[in-house]
Design a protein that fits this description.
This protein is an alpha/beta fold. The protein folds into 3 domains: 206 residues, 3-Layer(aba) Sandwich (L-fuculose-1-phosphate Aldolase), CATH 3.40.225.10; 178 residues, L-fuculose-1-phosphate Aldolase (3-Layer(aba) Sandwich); 212 residues, 3-Layer(aba) Sandwich (Rossmann fold). The protein is 45% helix and 14% strand. The chain is built from 25 helices and 18 strands. The strands form 3 sheets. A 7-stranded mixed beta sheet has the order 3-2-1-4-7-6-5, sandwiched between helices. Strands 14-13-12-15-16-17-18 form a 7-stranded parallel beta sheet, sandwiched between helices. A 4-stranded mixed beta sheet has the order 8-11-10-9. A hairpin with a 3-residue loop joins strand 6 and strand 7. Helix 5 crosses helix 8. The mean pLDDT is 94. Bound molecules: 1,4-dihydronicotinamide adenine dinucleotide (NAI). The site of 1,4-dihydronicotinamide adenine dinucleotide has 30 residues, from helix 17, helix 20 and helix 22.
Length: 686
């Protein structure tokens, strides 16, 4: 049951602060207001900049989410300018947007919601428009109109489906005027409008209306098991993880055919009940449960027909075929409805349902993939209730297309920040807790990447990831444990990365240790350790990257971090230098092998990185100095003095070189080496 969250004694005066508070309360429970959907308004009398009093409509701005909206998320419009519109018979979307742009009270606020006139035309001070699950349980039922009568009697105005815009706003205003006892409006296949004299009254009306709908639906449930009962059982967690490690890259590869996508996996109980249901395949193809879902979920999901437990290869085959069949059908759907000048969108599904396994959603970022999943969870809830009490119905194909390709909906999407060099890309960085690893993560995150930081120092990797998420946004970075010398550990790190983002595009092989010893004092153990981490470790990480890139079918990008010691002799560092040389040559070999499959492998060779590197603050610094018969401070000074710029080499300088190889700026280069030596060729220094 939906709860009334209004705090006792809370300020109830009209105005922006309380409007923002009310909006956040509505957004807090996704059963009331789904992500990005719904809008709220308040009509107030205010003194304008000239000191004159005027009637202002504050309404949610386009592109924000009620759950997180602040006072700056609303637009202010002069009611006196809007009022004459009620006398018009019709108005195009373009004219409406253009007209409303002239009504604003303050520049630099967001463009007002595309449903502004719904609010403006209603003669109530406070208005809420939401898409609650229980209301859609009535509005998306075939017999919704009859059910609305039964649940609300004369209190509800029923509006048959038309696309939002001027005509819907006018229709609602006229219907409410001609039904004086009306307390709410039910929009067929769309949502709810409620109002009040004060902000609190408006909120209470919204919540009471939803509670009433919930109680009515509960009474009506036919007693059937949801979705026709389970057709299959959910696979055990470990079996699913193994399966997902194989199938997510396949899905990601297919979904990225037009533009790279990030994936999100959901196995919540409500999702599992749906994907396992006997009637679910058919129900999932009826259509969207709310127009607001469409641009993020598409009209229908891909439902993969598969019997859990059957051959894994069979599932992969069905996914591949299903993704292509979906894309072909989507292209045909666009063709059937496309108007001149309309560009077709990405044809691949945003929601993929797999019996026994769960739901996979796609998006241009982890966040947007999660948004799609959260909207589809609402669709599942609505489908569940509609089919329990009546029969689920949705927008027709034509109505769906009109919303999906509605220029005003597309405008909302265009408000997102522009894409960057590493947007939609996922990078794994080994040695991610260290100086160069973390600087590289921040360099890539700063240009839109998602990053997995993997390190022997698991706590350090998690801490670094947390720092990155605070700086660049939740969900952008994941910190995990990895020992590059262990085959199982490498497999585990790739599994973690795949389960989180669906796959990888970039692998920065950077983990390292330092060891400085004259050859006669180098133990076999030390020699072996260098070989294990710097040669074998780089082989294991690269082999897994090749296998993943091949499964994804997208090509890939590997950047090795070697050292100047890989090319020139470093005194008293034979184990380290020889292992780094093996690493460097491995990169060249892999470049040769990967070329045909679109996998590039390049190497960055840093000289001494004095700042931020754990290596440089370890005994390595002292040992290197003693190898040359000088003090550690003298060695630092030596490095500073010899650079032409008279500056240190920072981890950020290495990150810049790595970012170059990881980006499309170096798209035509593989098997190459970039030294970062402070401007003095590494080969000429001791
Ligand atoms: P760092 O010590 O700050 O970072 C290296 C990271 O690798 C550490 O967090 C460590 O826990 C991790 N690591 C060690 N063994 C591992 C294993 N078996 N599995 C997974 N992770 C492991 O050092 P820095 O400077 O960031 O080094 C990064 C890379 O740059 C290394 O490959 C190093 O050889 C190379 N390099 C560094 C130079 C410098 O002056 N700092 C100069 C030339 C090359």
């Amino acid at each position: 049951m939906i709860e009334n969250l209004w705090e006792d004694g809370r300020d109830d005066s009209a105005g922006l602060a309380v409007l923002a508070y009310r909006s956040r309360l509505l957004g807090k429970d996704r059963r009331v207001s789904n992500w990005g959907g719904g809008n709220t308004s308040s009509k107030v009398r205010l003194q304008n900049f000239k000191g004159d009093w005027e009637h202002v409509l504050y309404v949610k701005g386009s592109g924000s989410d009620l759950a997180t909206i602040s006072e700056r998320g609303f637009a202010g419009l002069r009611m006196d300018d809007i009022a004459p519109l009620l006398n018009r018979d019709e108005m195009s979307d373009e004219d409406m947007v253009e007209y409303l742009a002239h009504c604003v009270t303050e520049p630099n606020l967001p463009r007002s919601s595309i449903e502004t006139l719904l609010h403006a035309f209603l003669p109530f001070p406070e208005v809420d428009h939401t898409h609650p699950d229980a209301i859609l349980g009535i509005c998306c039922s075939v017999n919704g109109k009859v059910m609305a009568e039964e649940a609300f009697g004369g209190e509800a105005v029923w509006i048959p489906y038309i696309r939002p815009g001027f005509s819907l706003a006018k229709m609602v205003a006229e219907a409410v005027r001609s039904q004086p006892d009306a307390r709410l409006v039910l929009l067929e296949k769309h949502g709810l409008i409620t109002w009040g004299e004060t902000p609190a009254e408006c909120y209470h009306n919204t919540i009471e209306t939803i509670q009433k709908a919930e109680a009515y639906l509960e009474e009506r449930v036919k007693g059937d098991v949801p979705f026709g009962g389970s057709m299959v059982q959910t696979l055990p967690g470990t079996v699913r993880d193994g399966l997902l490690t194989e199938i997510l890259p396949v899905i990601r590869g297919s979904a990225s055919a037009q533009q790279p996508m990030i994936l999100h996996y959901d196995d919540s109980p409500a999702v599992m009940e749906f994907v396992n249901g006997r009637a679910s395949r058919e129900l999932s193809q009826v259509g969207a449960a709310c127009p607001d879902h469409l641009v993020h979920t598409k009209r229908v999901p891909l439902f993969v027909e598969w019997t859990p437990g059957a051959d894994r290869e069979e599932l992969i085959k069905r996914i591949r075929e299903g993704m292509e069949a979906y894309a072909n059908e989507y292209r045909a759907y666009v063709k059937r409805h496309q108007k001149p000048g309309e560009a077709a969108g990405d044809p691949y599904p945003r929601i993929i349902l797999i019996p026994g396994v769960g739901m996979v959603s796609t998006g241009k970022s982890k966040y947007m993939a999660e948004v799609s999943a959260s909207l589809y969870q609402r669709a599942i809830a609505v489908t569940r209730v509609c089919s329990a009490v009546d029969q689920f119905t949705s927008l027709s194909e034509e109505e769906s297309y009109a919303i999906e390709y509605w220029p005003l909906e597309l405008y909302k999407l265009s408000l997102a920040p522009p894409e960057q060099a590493f947007s939609r890309r996922v990078a794994l960085i080994t040695g991610g807790a260290g100086g160069i690893g973390k600087a590289t993560a921040k360099r890539l995150l700063g240009e839109g990447a998602h990053v997995v930081l993997a390190d022997l120092n698991a706590a350090g990797a998690k801490e670094a990831a947390q720092e990155c998420n605070t700086e660049y946004g939740e969900g952008r970075c994941l910190g995990i444990a990895l020992d590059v010398t262990e085959e199982d550990s490498v497999a585990g790190a790739y599994r973690d990365a795949i389960l989180q983002y669906g796959g990888l595009d970039i692998v920065v092989s950077n983990a390292g240790i330092a060891s400085s010893q004259s050859v006669e004092n180098t133990s076999l153990q030390e020699w072996q350790k260098n070989i294990d981490v710097l040669a074998t470790g780089y082989f294991l990480v690269s082999r897994a990257a090749f296998q993943l890139f091949q499964r994804q079918g997208t090509g890939g990008n590997i950047v090795f971090v070697a050292s100047k010691n890989a090319m020139v002799a470093g005194k008293n560092a034979s184990a380290y230098s020889a292992a780094k040389a093996a690493e460097l040559h491995l990169a060249r070999c892999l470049a040769e092998e990967g070329g045909g499959g679109g996998i590039r492998v390049n190497t960055v060779c840093p000289d001494a990185v004095l700042q931020g590197s754990a290596i440089w603050s370890s005994s390595w610094r002292e040992e290197r100095a003693s190898a040359y018969g000088i003090t550690a401070d003298e060695l630092d000074e030596h490095y500073r003095q010899r650079t032409t710029l008279k500056v240190n080499i920072f981890p950020e300088d290495i990150a810049e070189a790595i970012a170059y190889f990881a980006s499309s700026r170096s798209a035509k280069t593989t098997g190459c080496i970039l030294t970062v030596d402070g401007g003095v060729a590494a080969a000429y220094t001791r």
